[in-house]
Amino acid sequence: MNSIVGWEVLVLGGIAIWIVLSSLLNVTKTIRSLTQPWITQLVVLGTPMIEKIQKYQHRYLDAFFIAISCVVSVPFYTGFLPLLFWSGHCKLARLMTLLMTFCDFTGNCIKDVVSAPRPSSPPVKRITATEDEITNAMEYGLPSSHTLNTVCLSGFLMHYVLSYNQIKDPTTEFFGITIVALFVGLVGFARIYLGMHSLVDIIGGLVLGLAILSFWLLVHDQVDTFIVSGQNVSSFWALFSFLLLFAYPTPEFPTPSFEYSTAFNGVALGIVTGVQQNYNQFHHESVVRIFTPELRLPLFIGRMLVGIPTILLVKFCSKAVAKWTLPILANAFGIPVKSTTYVPSLNVLATGRKPGEAKQSSYLHKMLFFTSQDSFDVDTGIRLVQYAGLAYSVVDLVPSIFSYLSL
Description:
By secondary structure, the protein is mostly helical. Helix content is 74%, strand content 1%. It contains 15 helices and two strands. The chain has helices spanning 6-24, 27-54, 59-71, 74-86, 90-114, 131-136, 145-164, 170-193, 199-229, 233-247, 257-283, 297-332, 344-352, 363-368, 378-405, and strands at residues 337-338, 376-377. It has a two-stranded parallel sheet with strand order 1-2. Pfam families: PAP2. Its main location: endoplasmic reticulum.
């Protein structure tokens, strides 16, 4: 068995200690009480500016800014990242996936800690043309996830392209930074125009994005080295993903933010596990890349036609397996569970018990879950397993099929 590296213990232990201390000291409520009032005031003060911008509303501008928002949305990246893996740019794909997970978790944590509102509608007109935007509107406002993700992912993409091509020309670098800055500004303005965010949300997303990007540029090589050649990678990341579920703060009122974070947490787990186990076979730096003689565009289209249905099938199957197995495992360990969406029968069983028939909590439940919760939402575990299975298929099952079909 590989020896446990000291920093792994520090990371996992630090998260566990934070979970305990933050629960005992009510850290989330304390931070919220200090930040929510003045952030809310800034949102209210920024409403007249949004109204002035929306006076110039036009259907063509609506379509343009909606398109901009869709291009930098979570569903877009969810579809784009598998294609990046299959195009042969595996290092860029896994680093952008982990960065996306980092951004999503951090941004959503801050949203639910502060629990600051979006601009009030009315008087602001909220333009939501897609189901994704309607769901986004149910989240809290600060920071703007679109701005945060655009800063980090477009900034890192520019850095990777310049480094990969060994471009050190100051003029080219300045041009790249200018393009990224203009794109970020356009996205931020689009979110204000659409009535989805106030100026303070955009500034918060920009500042947080620059901070995360700066940190990621310092550590991404070390993170990638650990993933492809480190010790205890799969076990470490599984424990890491599990602890992050409990490190997530409780919002003032329920929002979809935790669902998004759990999904990307599962994606990161599946990607890391799959890459670590099959790096030398499918993900090394010598794999064929798109637009080379070995991987021309028609061949890549063939990969898409095979790969996309496969990962969707795996997503469906992993969800079905998780819905069946996780409640059984929870019952075996004496952990009381409920389900908000996926397994309604659990709630029927729970509400159908007589007061004296409630199952006593096991020692595992008492040791791991010291909070006052009576039961835990099994949907969280199902979602984690579902997206971990999907991501694992992207980097393991689908490349195996490509190899078998000579794609």
